[in-house]
Write a structure and sequence with these properties.
Layout: H1 8-11, H2 22-27, H3 32-38, H4 54-65, H5 68-81, H6 85-109, H7 116-123, H8 126-149, H9 151-160, H10 168-171, H11 182-197, H12 199-224, H13 240-251, H14 271-300, H15 312-321, H16 324-358, H17 377-393, H18 396-424, H19 439-453, H20 457-481, H21 483-486, H22 489-497
Helix pairs in contact: 4-12, 4-14, 4-16, 5-13, 6-13, 6-14, 6-18, 6-19, 7-8, 7-18, 8-11, 8-16, 8-17, 8-18, 8-20, 9-16, 11-16, 11-17, 12-14, 12-16, 15-16, 16-17, 18-19, 18-20
Length: about 500
């Protein structure tokens, strides 16, 4: 039996329980060599298909990120920060960029589909890895629902030119005047079906949609700048720096998703080279477009105008041009943009669950790869239905803030992981290295903590309750089925000392 063959002890996990005490199990790290060797395999040994190049990876990252804040929560954020909303986007963008740099180093060194969950498992142990993975469930699944919720607003704008209006009871969630948000549910389910068909097909559809939404956002800016009024930026900080910070914490939701590229590590043709490039390139594209659109929107309308305004960008276009068809075309583009976010983030969620399932921390069904499709069909179906129900029944505001706090926590852990591996595994080959180490990852972690602190008390309560539920799930299932914990000490030491072969 080779050093990287799955030891018999791991196969018995779940039948005899873990071989370690709780304290040692929570601190046991998964060997990086084992992660790399297992990459691409499901729980039954079937392989994911390696078909992505740097273009598809970049578009997955941009698709999961670009559009969320601008299309969906801009109207909620401008009243918090005033004209300085573009500064809030910059602050959130810097925090995301610092973490993205750390993600780039980790993705090039550990090219697996688990994203920050896998990075944390390799550095901080099973306990923190589970917490990180549980946060990622919150980040990905809930953010998909949150983005999809905003689709109803833009679908209404799309059909308004035809004299049609979707009634609130099928286009709004409970608490917002409706019974369920049917458009949000339909979008999630359509993306679910596409992902079940195959990753390559999904990636090309996503790439086409991303290019469309970049074009329509640039079109918005071109129109908005024709009505630009510099006086709208005076006063710049009507709500003070506290308002800017609070808005930055909320719009950070707009940047989650760049890490979706790292979840494609097991389906990339050359992950060590292409993942870092895709992550960094996507952050440059997203931040530039966000700031440009925010400045154009404020320049076109006074910041007080945004309070209570739904589908703000469409309304600005309608008021400037007076042509309903322009608003309808833009609204259709916005629906496509929201769809690309849902598609890319839902993809990321299913791939993270593949990694967690492979480690035994969640049920095997999430890691089963279809022999015909080369995708986790069963896991995608389960996640898609759960997310669709959430999107149809839960209001946007509660989803957005809860997603941000889980994401910030996961990003902070990735920054810490970079520091840990630089200190303890300096010999590992890194296709990309964080600049200005250790200042960059330390600042990245501190920025994440700062933004978490600025989120409201209710958001923290939701987060803590989510963590409690996560601990119950871990002790009920993950603790007893963990494959890393079931390794005997000699097997574990052999795996930990094994050379890393990325091929």
């Amino acid at each position: 039996m080779s050093a990287l063959d799955e030891p018999r002890a791991a196969k018995s996990a779940g039948r005899s329980g873990p071989s370690l005490g709780l304290g040692r199990q929570l601190l046991r790290r998964k060997p990086i060599a084992q992660m790399v060797q297992e990459a691409g395999s499901g729980t039954e040994g079937r392989k994911l298909v390696r078909s992505f190049g740097v273009l598809q990876l970049t578009m997955i990252s941009v698709g999961a990120t670009l559009g969320t804040g601008i299309f969906v929560i801009l109207g909620d954020s401008v009243p918090m920060a005033g004209p300085a909303i573009f500064i809030s986007f910059l602050i959130a963008g810097v925090a995301a960029l610092l973490s993205a740099i750390s993600y780039a180093e980790m993705a090039g060194m550990v090219p697996v589909s688990g994203s920050s969950y896998s990075y944390t498992y390799a550095t901080l142990g099973e306990g923190m890895a589970w917490i990180c993975g549980w946060c990622l469930v919150l980040e990905y699944a809930v953010s998909v629902a949150a983005v999809a919720v905003g689709a109803g607003q833009y679908i209404n704008e799309s059909v308004a030119g035809l004299g049609w209006v979707l009634p609130d009871f099928v286009s709004q969630p409970p608490g917002s005047g409706g019974v369920m948000n049917l458009p949000a549910m339909v979008i999630v389910l359509l993306c679910m079906v596409l992902l079940m068909r195959g990753a390559r097909e999904s990636a090309w559809v996503n790439t086409a949609i991303v290019l469309i939404k970049i074009v329509i956002l640039l079109f918005f800016c071109a129109v908005a700048f024709t009505a630009f009024n510099a006086g709208n930026f005076d006063p710049l900080l009507p709500m003070g720096t506290a308002g800017v910070s609070a808005a930055a914490s909320r719009v950070f939701f707009s940047y989650i998703g760049f890490d979706a590229a790292s979840t494609a590590g097991e389906e990339a043709r050359n992950p060590q080279r292409d993942l870092p490039r895709a992550i960094m390139l996507s952050m440059v594209i997203v931040t530039s477009v966000y700031v440009l659109v925010a400045v154009a929107a404020i320049g076109a309308r006074d910041w007080t105008w945004f309070d209570g305004t739904e589908a703000a960008l469409v309304q600005i276009l309608l008021e400037i041009t007076g042509k309903p068809w322009i608003g309808a075309v833009f609204a259709i583009g916005a629906v496509l943009a929201i769809t690309s976010v849902v598609l890319a983030v839902l993809y990321g969620q299913t791939r993270i669950l593949v990694s967690m399932s492979r480690d035994g921390l969640v049920p095997k069904v999430f890691g089963r790869i279809s022999a015909k499709r080369g995708t986790p069909v069963a896991g995608t179906l389960i996640v898609g239905i759960a997310v669709a129900l959430t999107a149809g029944l839960v209001p946007l505001g509660a989803l957005a803030d809860a997603t941000s706090i889980g994401t910030l926590f996961a990003f902070a852990l990735v920054n810490v992981s970079v520091v840990y591996l630089r200190r303890n595994r300096p010999e590992l080959k890194r296709s990309y290295r964080v600049a200005f180490y250790p200042v960059t990852p330390i600042l990245g972690a501190l920025m994440c903590v700062y933004l978490m602190i600025n989120l409201g008390g209710l958001t923290w309560l939701v987060f803590l309750l989510w963590m409690v539920v996560g601990q119950v799930a871990y002790f009920a299932y993950g603790r007893r089925h963990s494959k890393v914990a079931a390794l005997s000490q000699p097997d574990y030491e052999v795996l930990s000392a094994a050379p890393i072969d990325p091929h």
